[in-house]
Design a protein that fits this description.
This protein is an alpha+beta fold. Helix content is 52%, strand content 12%.
């Protein structure tokens, strides 16, 4: 077999290995809850290694295929969804941008991590921090663009709410780059038996640039893809940045998340859920209390079997009507059709 054919075979084999590691690794970390701490992930470091070890046209496939395959394996329906769920495009394009930065700087990064020494430890940690910051800033902008009012105050709110997630993600970046990126890059640099591409021609970078530009453009369009609801490892659950709503009916239950705005109440959140999920909702205004009373939800009517609709916020019953109780992101709002004793 010719040397070029052997090199191509090595590249394809390496591509498959990295995608398999990324797919199975993310599945185990997310679906099996094996993360040593929140927001720990390995896709970022695999994106770096792919750019260092592979041709540009193949390297970009590692993060994208790993994300897509792991989402499908986890059970995230990524190709259907609604307006709010397009954040997946920002997450995929975020990794694509990281890959592009690595591809254009692969020679410098490979040389900078060519051996394990104190200076290179600092470089590896710095790369982990830098890539995470770039990625998290991009995805936070995505959250703001897709589901928040386009104001500076709401942008600040998004970044403030994302600080805990970013801190854990930064730790993940430092740990994985020190424990994986530095040793692997140093080994490859010091061993000449591996037939790896030493240079990347400009023409090989053009398809990658075009793909990244396309993903960025799609992120800001009306294309609706489904955001993973169980396992966005860089954002975790959205409980802290939205209202968790649970409605417990006679023989049914509904759970969803809604962003609370300044004028939202426990009742308006219920209204939005009823509209989104096509649930019937009836209520009565009582002038003497200057408040609304929910009469029925999804045809479960007050008085049936001595049960009535009662709402709870953070497991407690508020002493005011649902239309008067202002909710905030992070609240746990629950409506129960239950027997009420006084």
């Amino acid at each position: 077999m010719k040397k070029g054919a052997i090199g191509n075979l090595h590249q394809v084999l390496l591509l498959v290995i990295l995608i398999v590691i990324g797919t199975i690794g993310r599945y185990l970390l997310v679906a099996q809850n094996l993360q040593p701490f929140p927001n720990f992930e390995i896709i970022m470091v695999l994106t770096f290694l792919a750019a260092i070890l592979m041709r540009s046209s193949l390297a970009i496939a590692v993060p994208l295929c790993s994300m897509i395959f792991s989402d499908l394996l986890i059970g995230n329906p990524i190709f259907v969804g609604s307006q709010m769920n397009r954040i997946v495009l920002f997450t995929y394009s975020g990794f694509a941008m990281i890959a592009l930065v690595n591809i254009f700087n692969r020679k410098r990064f490979k040389r900078g991590l060519g051996e394990i020494k104190l200076a290179n430890i600092g470089i590896a940690a710095g790369l982990g921090v830098g890539f995470v910051l770039l990625y998290d800033i991009w995805t936070n902008i995505g959250w703001w663009y897709l589901i928040y009012p386009h104001t500076l105050s709401s942008l600040a709110t998004v970044f403030t709410a994302g600080i805990p997630f970013m801190i854990y993600h930064l730790i993940s970046g430092v740990v994985t780059f020190l424990a994986i990126a530095l040793p692997v890059t140093a080994f490859v640099h010091q061993n000449f038996k591996l037939d790896l591409p030493k240079t990347v021609k400009t023409i090989q970078k053009i398809p990658v640039v075009l793909l990244v530009v396309l993903l960025i453009a799609l992120s800001f369009t009306g294309t609706a893809l489904k955001m993973p609801t169980r396992s966005e490892i860089w954002l975790e659950e959205v409980d802290q940045t939205s209202v968790t709503l649970v409605i417990r009916g006679d023989d049914w239950i509904l759970e969803d998340h809604y962003l609370a705005y300044a004028d939202d109440t426990a009742f308006t959140i219920l209204q939005r859920a009823a509209s989104d999920h096509e649930l019937s909702l009836e209520y009565t205004y009582y002038e003497q209390f200057d408040s609304l009373l929910v009469d029925s939800v999804n045809h479960d009517v007050n008085g049936e079997n001595n049960r009535y609709w009662q709402y709870y916020v953070n497991e407690e019953i508020p002493m005011i009507g649902a239309d008067k109780y202002s909710v905030k992101n992070g609240d746990y709002l629950e409506w129960r059709f239950e027997i009420i004793s006084y």
